[in-house]
Write a structure and sequence with these properties.
By secondary structure, the chain is α+β, with helices and mostly antiparallel strands. The relative contact order is 0.13.
Length: 96
C-alpha cells in the first residue's frame, strides 16, 4: 500500500486557493482548472503554450496563476465583428 497513489478530488475552491498562493500544482490540477484533459496539458507543454517547471524527467509542476495568465492570451476578445473584405487579387490598371 505504500506505493498506492492517492486519488485527490480537487474542488474549485481548492484550485482558487492554490491560485492565490505561489504553490506548485500538478498537471491534474491544471487540467481541472482549465477544464481540459491532462493529455491536453501535455500537448500545450509541448507547444510551449503554458509555463511549467520540470523538477525531474517525470516530475512536472506548474504555478497555476502563470498558466491561467498564459491561457488568457488565447482568449477571443471580440466575436461576430465583420471585417472589411480585402481581395487577394492584384489590381489592374483600371481598378486603381
Amino acid at each position: 500500500m505504500k506505493n498506492e497513489r492517492r486519488s485527490l478530488d480537487y474542488k474549485p475552491e481548492m484550485i482558487v486557493g492554490a491560485a492565490d498562493s505561489l504553490a506548485l500544482v500538478t498537471k491534474d490540477v491544471v487540467a481541472r482548472a482549465a477544464s481540459v484533459s491532462p493529455r491536453t496539458i501535455e500537448n500545450w507543454m509541448g507547444q510551449r503554450r503554458i509555463p511549467y517547471i520540470r523538477l525531474s524527467p517525470k516530475c512536472v509542476r506548474f504555478h497555476i496563476t502563470s498558466v491561467l495568465a498564459a491561457l488568457r492570451r488565447f482568449e477571443v476578445k471580440e466575436v461576430g465583428h465583420a471585417r472589411k473584405a480585402i481581395s487577394s487579387l492584384p489590381l489592374t490598371e483600371g481598378q486603381q
